[in-house]
Write a structure and sequence with these properties.
- With 148 residues, the chain is an alpha+beta fold.
- The protein is built from 3 helices and 3 strands.
- The longest helix has 22 residues.
- About 8% of the residues have low confidence.
């Protein structure tokens, strides 16, 4: 049996999204003409990809995950509660579609992880004493200037 590499303490396992994301019913792709490199071919082919992910219809995330996704990508969500991802970096339609799906996967992974709870901390006593001591020294310095 082959050995698996040891898991690091920092890495968290990514959720196993069921199957290929592009076949999910809540995801739709449309293709449009992209600006940028492409030569004579750029005005005749639809190489840019616009991926739409219907958040409210999705079964990939629970309600808290959907709320986190809405917060994470609030500028890319339209009035119909769709996350719109546009990819036009590559000249190939297939590569642009893969890039858009990879971005969607990143958003889903970030939204699926609950945020780490914040632990309240106090200012250490040593820091308070140091601040007060510096304040006393500065006040003394200013008081001595007044006597001149």
């Amino acid at each position: 049996m082959p050995e698996q590499p040891p898991a690091t303490a920092q890495s968290t396992p990514a959720p196993d999204w069921p199957g290929d994301l592009s076949t999910r019913p809540e995801i739709s792709c449309s293709y449009l003409r992209a600006s940028g490199p492409g030569g004579q071919h750029v005005n005749t082919s639809d190489s840019a990809v616009q991926l739409r992910f219907r958040i409210s219809d999705s079964s990939l995330l629970d309600e808290q995950g959907k709320a986190r996704l809405r917060r994470l990508a609030r500028r890319q969500i339209n009035a119909r509660d769709e996350l719109v991802i546009t990819a036009s970096e590559q000249r190939s339609q297939l590569l642009n579609k893969q890039a858009a799906l990879a971005r969607l996967r990143q958003y889903l992974e970030m939204a699926s992880r609950p945020p780490k709870p914040r632990r309240k901390t106090k200012v250490p006593a040593a820091s308070k004493l140091k601040r007060l001591e510096n304040k006393r020294i500065l006040a003394e310095k200013k008081r001595l200037r007044q006597g001149e």
